[in-house]
Amino acid sequence: MNFDRNTVIGFVVLALLFFAYFYYNNQEQLKYSKQKAREKFVADSLAAANGPKTDTLVLKKDSARADTQQRVVTAGSFRDAATGTEQLIVAENNLMKVTFSTKGGQVRKVELKNFKTPDGKPVLLASTGFDRLSYPVQTAPNQTAQTAELFFNKVDSATAANGTRTYSFSLQSSDSNSTSAIVHKYTLHPDEYMVGFDAAFNGADKLLTDGNLNLNWQYAAVQQESDISYERQNTQVGYVTGDEFDYHTISKTHDKDFGKPVNWLGIRQRFFFTILVSKQPFSSGKMEWIEPADSSRTLVQSTANMKLKLPAGTSATAGFSLYYGPSDYHILKKYDQRFEKLVNLGQGMYAFVRPLNRFVILPIFEFFKNMSAGSMGLAIALLTLFIRLLISPLTYSSYLSGAKMKALRPEIAKLKEKLGGDQQAMSMEQMKLFREAGVNPLGGCVPALLQIPIFFALFSFFNAEVSLRGAEFLWANDLAAYDDPIKFGFNIPLMGSHLSMFNVTATLTSFLISWYSMSMTPDQGNPMMKYLPYIFPVFLLFFFNSLPAALTWYYTVSNIVTLILQFIIQNYIIDHDKILAKIEENRKKPKTKSKWQERMEQMQEQQKKMKEMQQRNKR
């Protein structure tokens, strides 16, 4: 298909019309939604105003009194624990501060000492009213109560010589003739994100039905990054069942039934991970999750109901562990439970880059990170130089191929002048010329193709590397998020409400590479081919604008290296006179055609004959 200037302008105008249509349609939908919400608000307000008047204070008191009575009845033999005052016990080690509650004898919140939110506040995990860890116990015949609703009023603590701290929360039966008791014991080691949790039962045969502990774990992953949509895209549910790891993105599936024993299950929200581990695998269970509205600042709310079979007897202990910490590959791997599998070094259709990240990118980046005294921007630049050095032999062959193509430009120009607008004849003669000169027109494509898996590997790596979070470099406040020194104050389709400067530098350097490459490439005769290399940088400006600054900074450095190498190799290393002499020498050698070349020439010859016949028939 031939493209002229008017065709290109037509496509641009059509694209602009599409953009304008989608933008207008989106604005109309927003107006409609706001109008409906306003109408509903007015209707609800009128209904409330016209409805019967009630004393809300009295209703609240009556409801609270009825709720208390119900909880006392439900608590049965633990009726003294049905009411009380919640006490919070704060424990801490070198990495985190854990707040325990006597209500339920459970974790109330976890503060990570080494991490802050974008607004400078501490990163908190398991800190919402939705979060809880509970299970039902039999408190009377045909009657059960959830431990999360009972007060574990006796608290004991101890500190070992190595700094390990233990906290025990006890729940005793209210009946004098009963020895039933529950003890929740938590263990906090000095330099660990993993919290040990043991639930011990005295009178387990009476407290648990058939020795089954039905654990209910509710967890809400709260927004920790500046862009909630991007963080949600990188939030996943993971687990190990039957010694096999698997995961789900929260937007594609919303529940999982476990038909095999489950070792652990957890939620990773890009840079932070919360895991529930059972020392004895859960026998079965189900996990469900939902995505609340962005306004709630919650990525996902999950509820897991897991069954654990305990040994028969009057006494029994269930052992668990709870991990609250960063999704750091090295930290997670040391537990040897496949936690690190959920760190996205390459998943799904990009799983082929995981070995590249694990065995090359990650260790090399760690090395340069230590060398650069904590400057993540410098470490990324050094990593880029290392990658370019690694592929330098292929890069040189690419530039050499480009130099040969440039040396043939005068002869190609003569062919074009001779054959005029006959594109088919031009293509045949050009292939013949390349074969005679020993030039591979696709020789420059190999490094470009090699960059594709490298780019996908770094795309996964920079989205998962927790050390980039909050790292400042030049004008970027956080290399793990997009840099936004320019804010529009309004939303642009496909771009957002900001302009990333690293994205601009990546786009400009990509444009310069395209311009330089086109100056080295023979004129193809097709007007569209002249503009095609410049389309890719335009796409970058839109699609890279919301990517992490680490990735766009890498792309900028890589492009600068490419430009410098192109200039040096073309002007100071490659001898164009020698190339011409070599081409003439190749022409004198006898040529053998490959089967592919023979088939291509046959197809072109047939197309030429068909075209000539069509022209004769028209006459």
Fill in the keyword field for this structure.
alpha+beta, 619 residues, elongated, 16 helices, 5-stranded antiparallel β-sheet, 9-stranded antiparallel β-sheet, Beta-galactosidase, Chain A, domain 5, disordered N terminus, 22 strands
Which geometry do the CA atoms define? elongated
CATH fold group of the domain at 88-343:
Beta-galactosidase, Chain A, domain 5
The neighbouring-strand order within the major sheet is 8-9-10-11-20-17-16-13-14
Mean pLDDT: 80
What's the CATH first level of the domain at 88-343? Mainly Beta
Structural class designation: alpha+beta
Using DSSP, what is the number of strands? 22
**Beta-strand residue fraction:** 25-35%
Tally of helical runs? 16
Nearest-angstrom radius of gyration? 34 Å
Low-confidence stretches are 1-11
What would your notes on this structure say?
With 619 residues, the chain is α+β, with helices and mostly antiparallel strands. Among the domains are: 88-343, Beta-galactosidase, Chain A, domain 5, CATH 2.70.98; 353-471 and 549-600, no CATH class. 44% of the residues lie in helices and 26% in strands. It is built from 16 helices and 22 strands. It has helices at residues 5-50, 56-75, 204-207, 228-233, 329-333, 354-371, 376-390, 392-407, 409-419, 423-437, 445-464, 501-520, 527-543, 549-573, 576-588, 595-618; strands at 88-92, 96-101, 106-116, 122-125, 132-134, 136-140, 143-146, 154-159, 165-172, 181-188, 194-202, 212-222, 235-241, 244-249, 255-258, 262-269, 272-282, 284-290, 298-309, 315-326, 486-492, 496-499. Strands 8-9-10-11-20-17-16-13-14 form a nine-stranded antiparallel β-sheet.
